[in-house]
Amino acid sequence: MKLRLDKFLADMGYGTRSGIKKEITKGSVTVNGTVTKKPETKIDTEQDRVCFHGEEAAYEQYEYFMLNKPEGVVCATSDRRERTVLDLIEDKKRDDLFPVGRLDKDTEGLLLVTNNGELAHRLLSPKKHVDKVYFARVRGTVTDEDIKQFSEGMDIGDEKKTLPAGLRILSSGEISETEITIREGRFHQVKRMFAAAGKEVIYLKRLRMGPLILDESLAPGEYRRLTDKEVAELC
Ligand code: URA
Question: What is the per-residue pLDDT across 152-175, written as a single tens digit (0 to 9) for each?
Fold first, then answer.
């Protein structure tokens, strides 16, 4: 990919475009070992070696983070009042990252944060039916009848019934624990499906989205970059 030197450095988190332009004209940047004072210099991201104050700046077109979203933060890129999932990711380089899909403020678990729009579209498109697996603790006894209802698709008050969903009972009683697999991403879908079955979700955590599995060593609020293998499986 080819792009301007100042954009290259801004994308990699070296500062604002105007600050970077000043640094370039001051002579703080080399391209292939030669000081380059023109911000508009075209850089080939695969071939050229760019150094900022002597430190090599490798170009990454996309960043991918797995966040174990804690409760109490919102899935947005910015918010005037609330803390967002992007506020939690401190060592990001790019400023065009966004969360792939929405978890409710009180939902925990797997959230992919990236700037790869094409991948996000593929994971979220209703036509692609990508599995999303959740752990749900609910008030009420979950029974085989619920499994049947979930598997047939449910009327949750939308124009169309939901697609068939998988429900596994982990424990059943006054409070039941379940694993649920849905293939869409409707608003409050899991909570509304349980509500339609007469139960209330009291805790919800996403465990998996397509091939991406929550790394259980991440405490709520912690994150890490995806491994190359995870990126390859997603892409
Ligand atoms: N379904 C819900 O009800 N809430 C979420 O956060 C995700 C799926």
Answer: 999 999 999 999 999 999 999 999
Backbone angles phi, psi at 53, to 5 degrees: 50, 40
Please answer whether residues 135 and 202 qualify as being in contact, where contact means their C-beta atoms are separated by less than 8 angstroms. no
Handedness of CA 114, 116, 119, 120 (dihedral sign): positive
Catalytic annotation present for 95:
no
Residue nearest (by alpha carbon) to ligand 1 atom 3: 188
Is residue 194 predicted with pLDDT exceeding 90? Answer: yes
* CA–CA separation, 217 and 171 (whole Å): 24
Testing ligand 1's pocket by substitution, the residue of 102, 132, 134 carrying the most ligand atoms inside 8 A of its CB is 134
Q: What's the residue count for the chain? A: 235
d(CA 99, CA 124): 11
Can you tell me the distance from the alpha carbon of 80 to that of 84, in angstroms, rounded to the nearest whole number?
10
DSSP 131-188: -EEEEEEEES---HHHHHHHHH----SSSSPPPP-EEEEEE-SSEEEEEEEESS--TT
Could you tell me if the CB of 188 is within 6 A of ligand 1?
Answer: yes
Q: How far apart are CA 77 and CA 173, in angstroms?
A: 39
pTM tops 0.85, yes or no: yes
Only one residue has tokens 């992919």, namely 112
